[in-house]
């Protein structure tokens, strides 16, 4: 049980360093954070005293893996040239902050094509990432593409979309994938029973490859398979059900991959505690 790399998205209200206190409350060994307000454009540099407090709390924490999620405003295939420039600048800032904090995994949504067409925008995303990676050569942060539900014109609802971007990367050591259980299910990849789970994970291996997997978002779904609607639910209380999470928790391909919840929570974090207890309880002892 000690080897599980598992946790939740933790708030940084009160400062980046406070996330470790919340992680301790839920007995997490992994967590995801925003390194700045997720609904603001302006990149912010981390001040020295904040970094010092963050490092101090990190050194005392059980958390072994910290993941960051980028701003929701960023769209690396924006239709508007100004938004594209702001998105690229903001994403570069995300990488720089992760580098300063020692965070290796930066999760991001591919973007929305807004009527431009999927292939055109997948190419735009790859071009943007290559430019940003070239400008951040000193960083070893992995830009980690998240699978999406495919709402609206969002890209990333097919494994092929992620593979398309990966294929165009100049430096493949700087690219990875985050699998979100709710998102793939809503996109039409069924995982509810052993047969469908195996089929979906085999497709992931064949199209993308587990070598690129860097993180998992552990979320049940409020909506049915193929709905293309992104609505997270607590583990075992949604349309996916608990069996799928049992398959994943006992799949050796996921053993060393950090797994984090992105479900709603109260201030006392009891929901995270309950969800994590369910997931830990699914692990079969040898």
Structure description:
The protein is built from nine helices and ten strands. The chain is an alpha/beta fold and 286 residues long. The radius of gyration is 18 Å and the shape is globular. The model has no long low-confidence stretch (mean pLDDT 96).
Give a summary of the structure in a few sentences:
With 286 residues, the chain is of the alpha/beta class. The chain has a single domain, classed as TIM Barrel.
* Structural class estimated from helices and strands: alpha/beta
The main pleated sheet reads as: 8 strands, parallel, barrel
| SS field, number of helical segments | 9
CATH architecture: Alpha-Beta Barrel
> What string, H for helix and E for strand, traces the elements in order?
EHEHEHEHEHEHHEEEHEH
Index terms:
9 helices; 286 residues; alpha/beta; TIM Barrel; eight-stranded parallel beta barrel; single chain; 10 strands; two-stranded antiparallel ribbon; 38% helix
Write the layout of secondary structure elements.
Elements: E1 6-9, H1 18-25, E2 30-33, H2 48-59, E3 65-69, H3 81-101, E4 105-108, H4 118-135, E5 142-146, H5 159-167, E6 175-180, H6 181-187, H7 194-207, E7 213-218, E8 220-221, E9 232-233, H8 242-249, E10 259-261, H9 270-281
Parallel strand pairs: 1-2, 1-10, 2-3, 3-4, 4-5, 5-6, 6-7, 7-10
Antiparallel strand pairs: 8-9
Helix pairs in contact: 3-4, 4-5
